[in-house]
Structures are given as C-alpha cells and as structure tokens.
Amino acid sequence: MARYRVIPERSRLWAEARSSLHPVRVETSGLTGHVEAEVAEGQVRLGAPFQVEIDAARLRSGNGLIDGELQRRLETRKFPTVVGAVRAAAAEGARWRLNGDLTLHGVSRATDAAVTVKLVDADTIEIEGEKVIDMRDYGLTPPKLLMFRVHPDVKVRARLVAVREAT
Q1: pLDDT, tens digit, for every residue of 54-92?
Q2: Strand runs (DSSP E) across 23-80, as ranges?
Q3: Cα gap 118→95, rounded to integer Å
Q4: Which of 39, 72, 127, 135 is 20–30 Å from 107 (CA)?
Q5: What share of the chain is helix, strand, coil (3-state, %, to 5)?
Q6: Left (φ > 0), alpha (ψ -120 to 50) or beta: where does 93 sit?
Q7: CATH code for residues 2-164
C-alpha cells in the first residue's frame, strides 16, 4: 500500500441540517490527513488504517448569527478538531465501505460510510461519500433561536483528493 496525502485546498466538506425556516449549509475546504491505497490496472484499492481531520473553526455557514451559535456549541477552543479515523475498508462492488470512528465535540462514535473511489491521474485519487449523523450522538443539542429550530440530523458529504507521496 502507498500513502496518499490529502490536498487541503482541493478537498471539501459539506454539511446540511434542516431547520424550521431554511436549510443550514456549511461548506469548507481544509481537510488534512492521509489515505492508504494501491492502484493496479487503473483501479484503486483502499487500505487501512488512515485518518482525515479538519479544524472545527472552519465549519461556517456564512451567516454570522448561525456561525456564532455553531462555534459556541461545537466549543471549538476546547475541541478544535473533527477527526475521521478509518479502521477498515472493504470493497462492495463499485463502492467501498469504510468503518471507523468519527470524533466530534470530543465524542468518538463508531460509524461507517459508503464511498466511491476513482483515479484522477497516475498519482492522484479521489474519495467521495456522504453520511447522515445525529448531532445528539456527539453531545450537541440542536440550536433553537426564537422560532428558528435546527433538526438533529445532519447530512455530511466529503470529497478527498489525495496525491501519492514519494517513496
């Protein structure tokens, strides 16, 4: 297996929560980490373990009121990083099943996600997937501001672009 370094400026994270007024959307780049993978005959085979993380302070919607509440609830000074640690990767037809732990707000929970993997060029791979999480599982209470209520289920989608490290 080769080690691939996640390219922060080309990798993205999106999160969307429903609310009583409108969807709350967060989008950011800045994912870091590495991926274990092997390329044979134009196909990517993922390995494990590997880890990806993002600075929790990067999670912003663009709305100052919502962002202030989000940062306060995430306690970004106390819990500065969101970490996805993959323990196992298994092929499932054209997709891959990743099993590991998501650490958010200082709480780690076992989770899994189905992802697609593709070869971008000879040295670059792209992994993309999504997962719905319940913020309450991570010790987070859904925000309520007057008539504005956020639902606890959050759809999280990520695209990792990673380049093979020199050996």
Answers
A1: 999 999 888 887 888 888 889 999 999 999 999 999 999
A2: 24-29, 32-40, 43-46, 50-55
A3: 10
A4: 127
A5: 10, 65, 25
A6: left
A7: 2.40.128.110
